[in-house]
């Protein structure tokens, strides 16, 4: 016999709707459990958010336990217009330091003799000396120059004698020029009164290059010898007055400066390459050439009263440069005093604790004189840490307040997510109590937050800076006391707050109260999942049983109807036959 799956087709009773209603009514426990699970999830989310805020608070507290920033210092000079600069390191003693500098440090110097190069000509005859090849400190430029109002035009291909002739021609023979190889100077001689050199529209530097300047007389001579050593010409062809002989057959020689050997080759090296070699060495000196005086100098790279020691064989390069015949000009040490104390000595113009003994204080002076350095706490770094703590603390407190409050509006009571969690409310009170309490046992003038101008906002558990001036004064003038208040190990403010927060939020070494709460909620939700699954299995079984029963009823009803139809037909047939 075929079964009928259509609900009520035979019986006329919609049993499927009946089953759905029955199962829905029986599902009420699942709905209650799901509601409980939803509340648990909301609590879990709220606690996770609180845990994040606690982590931020922990970080701000850890920053307070590091006392480094509380010992940061600033140094300020009393004079705004000064060539001095000052700096103070971590932990420098706070106070004012009167600095009086009576002598600046200078570097030792060894100056060679002047006029180390031969003159511009070996004889007084300069007809073969062209302007372009004269070994001068400043090369001559082509153009015009003026003598007694007469303009002379020159070209670089002209010889020096050509220029003398042009001067004589332009001035009608009243001014003549001559070169003296003995003095390596040019002399202009006038026969008609004082010589006047130059004009505003001159285009050649001939007069300045030959060191000729007005003196109000009829005779003008070069102010100094003219010849200069060409720095890029190889040494054996540079025209040194004193020849270099202390070299081997290939031109190799050497010398020492402060015990450091410097080598050279007269056939390949120039004065420029040798000086560069000296400057790049570890000898600790700088070599330079002054074309105006035709002289090489060595100067220590560091200041202070210290020597320069040179050595070479007779006939070497240093001798040719006039350095071995010179005496070292000893440098000077800086001389100064602090707070009218005894005279102190520094080899450099940057005086540090190495000479004055004040840890962390450094002063660079650019002139003699007196100034005052004021060392105070670096409030910026300290303020940043304190403000970060207050912000994190208030974020935790305001969140707990928001999540635990119960409000009533027009008789309608609304409870926040964590309103039934008394433990969460107690965390807020613990934090407030520990923040408010004093710190015992400190050798400090600050034992409470209010000593820093910090207190609770009235009617709340949140902190605020009520007196910025009090905080600034403490950070500026008593940073050590502030550091002791916040950072003292085990008993300081930060340590006490940290202990409470660590219990709530946990650490890398163990779980806190929040973790335990979250674990309980997770376990509870897992248990609810299991209960819902068990109830659902029962409901599924109940649906199957009810469905099977009603199908059986429908089938039985169908069988009864079929039998009745057959009987009716049978009776009807019998009746017709009779």
From TrEMBL:
Q: How does it assemble?
A: Homopentamer.
**All copies of domain Flagellar hook-associated protein 2 C-terminal, residue ranges:** 331-562
Intracellular or extracellular location(s): Secreted; Bacterial flagellum
Q: Which GO terms describe its biological process?
A: bacterial-type flagellum-dependent cell motility; cell adhesion
Membership in a protein family: Belongs to the FliD family.
Read off the Pfam families from this record.
FliD_C, FliD_N
Report the superkingdom from the record.
Answer: Bacteria
Tell me what this protein is called: Flagellar hook-associated protein 2
> Under the cellular component aspect of Gene Ontology, which terms does the record hold?
bacterial-type flagellum filament cap; bacterial-type flagellum hook; extracellular region
Keywords of this entry = Bacterial flagellum, Cell projection, Cilium, Coiled coil, Flagellum, Secreted
Span of domain Flagellar hook-associated protein 2 N-terminal: 11-107
- What functional role does this protein have? Required for morphogenesis and for the elongation of the flagellar filament by facilitating polymerization of the flagellin monomers at the tip of growing filament. Forms a capping structure, which prevents flagellin subunits (transported through the central channel of the flagellum) from leaking out without polymerization at the distal end.
């Amino acid at each position: 016999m075929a079964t009928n799956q259509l609900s009520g087709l035979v019986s006329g009773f919609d049993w499927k709707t009946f089953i759905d209603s029955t199962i829905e009514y029986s599902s009420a426990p699942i709905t209650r459990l799901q509601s409980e699970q939803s509340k648990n999830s909301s609590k879990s989310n709220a606690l996770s958010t609180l845990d994040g805020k606690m982590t931020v608070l922990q970080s701000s507290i850890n920053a307070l336990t590091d006392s480094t920033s509380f010992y940061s210092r600033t140094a300020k000079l009393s004079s705004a217009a000064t060539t001095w600069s000052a700096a103070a390191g971590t932990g420098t003693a706070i106070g004012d330091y009167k600095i009086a500098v009576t002598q600046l440090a200078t570097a030792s110097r060894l100056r060679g003799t002047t006029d180390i190069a031969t003159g511009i000509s070996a004889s007084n005859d300069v007809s073969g000396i062209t302007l372009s090849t004269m070994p001068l400190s400043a090369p001559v430029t082509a153009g015009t120059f003026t003598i007694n109002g007469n303009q002379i035009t020159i070209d670089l291909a002209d010889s020096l004698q050509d220029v003398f002739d042009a001067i004589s021609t332009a001035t009608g023979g009243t001014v003549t020029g001559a070169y003296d190889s003995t003095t390596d100077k040019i002399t202009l001689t006038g026969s008609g009164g004082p010589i006047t050199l130059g004009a505003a529209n001159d285009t050649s530097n001939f007069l300045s290059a030959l060191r000729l300047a007005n003196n109000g007389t009829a005779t003008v001579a070069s102010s100094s010898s003219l010849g200069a050593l060409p720095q890029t010409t190889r040494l054996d062809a540079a025209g040194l007055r004193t020849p270099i002989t202390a070299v081997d057959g290939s031109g190799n020689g050497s010398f020492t400066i402060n015990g450091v050997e410097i080598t050279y080759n007269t056939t390949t090296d120039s004065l420029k390459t040798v000086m560069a070699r000296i400057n790049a060495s570890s000898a600790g000196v700088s070599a330079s050439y002054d074309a105006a005086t035709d002289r090489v100098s060595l100067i220590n790279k560091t200041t202070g009263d210290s020597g320069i020691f040179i050595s070479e064989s007779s006939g070497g390069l240093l001798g040719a440069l006039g350095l071995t015949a010179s005496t070292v000009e000893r440098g000077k040490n800086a001389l100064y005093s602090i707070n009218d104390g005894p005279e102190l000595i520094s080899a450099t113009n940057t005086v540090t604790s190495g000479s004055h003994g004040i840890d962390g204080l450094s002063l660079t002076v650019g002139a003699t004189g007196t100034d005052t350095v004021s060392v105070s706490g670096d409030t910026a770094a300290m303020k940043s840490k304190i403000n970060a703590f207050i912000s994190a603390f208030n974020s935790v407190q305001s969140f707990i307040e928001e999540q635990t409050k119960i409000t009533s509006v027009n008789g309608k009571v609304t409870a926040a997510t964590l309103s039934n969690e008394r433990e969460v409310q107690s965390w807020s009170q613990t934090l407030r109590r520990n923040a408010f309490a004093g710190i015992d046992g400190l050798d400090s003038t600050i034992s409470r937050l209010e000593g820093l101008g910090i207190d609770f906002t009235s009617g709340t558990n949140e902190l605020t800076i009520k007196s910025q001036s009090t905080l600034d004064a403490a950070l500026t003038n008593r940073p050590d006391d502030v550091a002791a208040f916040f950072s003292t190990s085990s008993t300081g403010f930060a340590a006490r707050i940290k202990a409470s927060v660590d219990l709530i939020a946990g650490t890398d070494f163990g779980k806190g109260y929040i973790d335990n709460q979250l674990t309980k909620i997770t376990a509870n939700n897992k248990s609810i999942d299991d209960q819902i699954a068990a109830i659902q299995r029962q409901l599924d079984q109940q649906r199957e049983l009810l469905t099977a029963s009603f199908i059986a009823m429908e089938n039985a009803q169908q069988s009864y109807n079929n039998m009745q139809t057959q009987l009716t037909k049978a009776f009807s047939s019998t009746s017709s036959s009779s």
